[in-house]
From TrEMBL, chain A:
Keywords for the protein's UniProt record, in alphabetical order: ATP-binding, Nucleotide-binding, Transport
Coiled coil: none
InterPro entries xrefs: AAA+_ATPase, ABC_AA/LPS_Transport, ABC_transporter-like_ATP-bd, BCA_ABC_TP_C, P-loop_NTPase
GO-annotated molecular function: ATP binding; ATP hydrolysis activity; L-isoleucine transmembrane transporter activity; L-phenylalanine transmembrane transporter activity; L-valine transmembrane transporter activity
Claim: Transport is one of the keywords in the record: yes
Transmembrane helix among keywords: no
Matches recorded under Pfam families: ABC_tran, BCA_ABC_TP_C
Protein's name according to its UniProt entry: ABC transporter ATP-binding protein
Amino acid sequence: MALLDVKEMTQYFGGLCAVSEFTVALEQGQMAALIGPNGAGKTTVFNLVSGFYKPTRGEIIFDGQSIKGLKPHQVTSRGIARTFQNIRLWFEMTVLDNIRIAQHHALGYGLFDCFLRTPRYMQRERDIEDHAMEVLSRLGLAEVAHELPKNLPYGVQRLVEIARALSIKPKLLMLDEPAAGLNSADVEGLIKLIGDIHRDYGIAIWMIEHQMDVVMSLCSWIKVIDFGATIAEGTPEGIQNNPDVIKAYLGDDTI
Amino acid sequence: MQRLTVPALLACLFAVLLWAAGTGALNVYWQSVLMFMGVNIILATSLNIINGNMGEFSCGHAGFMAVGAYVSSLLSVALFTKSQVFGEPLIGPSAAVWLFPLVLIAGALAASLVGLLVAIPSFKTRGDYLAIITIAAAYIVKSTIENIGAIGGARGFMGMSAVMSAMNETINLPWIMIWVFVGTVFSVWLIRRFIYSTFGKGVDAICQDEIAAEIMSVNTDRVKLVAFMVSCGLAGLAGGLFAHILGYVNPGTFTILKSTEIMVMVYLGGMGSLSGSVLAAILMTLLIEYLRDAFGFLNTFLHYISVIPDSYEVTQVWKWVVIPLLLVLLMQFRPEGIMGRRELADVFPGLRKFYKFKG
């Protein structure tokens, strides 16, 4: 059975149909991409799956259970983590704290444990910190753990955001334009990193990306949407030669 | 070893205060100044959770203080002394010494429940709109109290001095001083533990990027609820202590001016800085006390040239000239306050050598 099963998800904003009958089935450990021209509704699809909006129609099933209508933090607790197109770190607190706060879904203690500093609290805080450091070291970020993200270069901020999403131990990682704003050297590093994460953690990764070299070198399956509607899906080779996709990106030559 | 520094310092301070209050080395006036300082520390540090850490703008802290003040006063008068309102005491004066903390806790719990009035709207609303709701909540509290005739209405409620003297008769110690000290230390301790935990850091996360917080599995509604209830509850504790220091309460005390006073302390200290709030509360208390009798010559002069009638004294109002002016200057030249977002140990890293906290 598919890990994420989205069936005929439709979203209207007023009279505008932002996403129309979107259907996707992502397998465990699959690496897939969602592409399309600007304004096609890609980020809206991510926002719907992660719980920011409740779809007008359709069904979202994750890991065998419906997650439609859950709040974002509940969706995240079920095992879907995501990053944002424009980096959304907490810039005024250390990188380590950024990762620690992402463990709210598995705190394992209550308010009174935190007032009384009970053994359970102390143990959990230590575990959370160890886990955070482990994730940071895995992505080579251990030396910036005590820096503020606002003082870090853009490329590193991206990595911190991916580390924060990974620290949730998701089953599905959704990356919204991970390569946006990176230079070509950084992009190469990112391709390698995402490949490594995919291999080491064995999680499903679903990304929105405009840079075709990222998509083509990583993803086994691609879905293309335009104006909210699906126009093509298939393997990278198939997509590259699909006339509808070329038309959506480059325009129709039969004017 | 370093873990004992702060408790040891506090114990010394406590001993000195007890000795000074007991022997009369500290006169009654300075005792009350120190007690108001404690109350202000509780108010500023608790408001700092909302206005500093969470980045919301609550202008109704005095309202929650009023709830705590009234609930604990009514309880202590009803339980421990004979009064016109409640008649014979329910338990008796001799129990006052032991049960007084419970009365304070009851006031704090009541205030944190009234805090729901603000906490629940905060799930959907933020910024200016939430600020308006906080003002509204404070006015609801104030008007409710003013319109309950049985507890004195707008005239206020009294009888707590009898409770205080009952406690002194049972065991002769400066009880109110003790409880203000304990309450202040307890509040700062509680707030510190809250905001330094991973759970409490969710409050800062909401301030810096609420959408990121929600997507990174922070249950923002729950964190907001807890933050508001802790903050309002401690304001209620401060209110209870305040009422018992004065011996009477009057709804007129808990106006928006009182809330403003607390807000100025938070902004003066630096938003989100716990030690900044403590420092600012101490400075502001001293400043307000100084301004009570300041510029006496101006008063004399205005009377001399007959600009104001002899019966009217201008000395009391300086507070409301200087505090707003201070706020204007602060926002112009140092909007981040004394400490910014930093703590004392960030400003003076050398201090870290001398003390350490658990977790």
